[in-house]
Amino acid sequence: EVHLIQSGAEVKKPGATVKISCKVSGYTFTDYYIHWVQQAPGKGLKWIGLVDPEDGETLYAEKFQGRVTITADTSTDTAYMELTSLRSEDTAMYYCATALVVVVAAPPDYWGQGTLVTVSS
Amino acid sequence: EIVLTQSPDCQSVTPKEKVTITCRASQSIGSSLHWYQQKPDQSPKLLIKYASQSFSGVPSRFSGSGSGTDFTLTINSLEAEDAATYYCHQSSSLPWTFGQGTKVEIK
């Protein structure tokens, strides 16, 4: 059975950096892309970017480019999303997700439980 | 960036009624349009992929149609458990984007 288990909630001060993890199980980690999606409180979904765990190649949304780094550790089957220079607008739930098909444009069909990041002074 | 506009923003529906949610793309996206359901405090769940393909395990009352710029999610005979927010999502071109969501409430 496929599982994506994310790290716990974080509280950060403005200007800080947060790094969230997403440990997968139930499939071969390097076979499929991992996506990250942001959801601010009471708001919609925003795609942040993705990583190909096989070779570490990434794609980022322009809105997050320069502040976000998505990586994959094949030794632990874990993906990471690091967001720097945090501001209040980054307060959100962050999800990792994957599509179990080898097509970059396939819609994610398995999602983590989400990690709440709160940015507050 | 492709903008997806859903309508309505909110819909209050009686059980067993039919629900129709539309999603309009700011430019043609072929059939690279997908639908998600999200209930409070839960992760999104994939319902429909590539405009009309039902995802495994999704009840048959959910269906999708459309291509190009105009798409529809239909829920036939709404059940109480369908109370949720529904999002369309395009993967035709980067950055991938989502609609603003349609909240379906049960009367």
Structure summary, number of beta strands of chain A = 11
Largest interface: A-B, 20 and 22 residues
- Give me the oligomer status: heterodimer
- Major sheet attributes of chain A: 7 strands, mixed
Mean pLDDT of chain B: 97
Give the percentage of residues in beta strands of chain B: over 45%
Task: List unreliable stretches of 5+ residues of chain A.
Answer: none
Cα distance spanning the termini of chain B? 36 Å
Major sheet summary line of chain B: 7 strands, mixed
Describe this structure as you would to a colleague.
The complex is a heterodimer of chains A (about 120) and B (about 110). Chain A is about 0% helix and about 45% strand. Chain A contains no helices and eleven strands. Chain A has strands spanning about 5, 10, 20-25, 35-40, 45-50, 60, 70-75, 80-85, 90-100, 110, 115-120. In chain B, about 0% of the residues lie in helices and about 50% in strands. The radius of gyration of chain B is 13 Å and the shape is globular. Chain B starts with a strand and ends with a strand. The mean pLDDT of chain B is about 95.
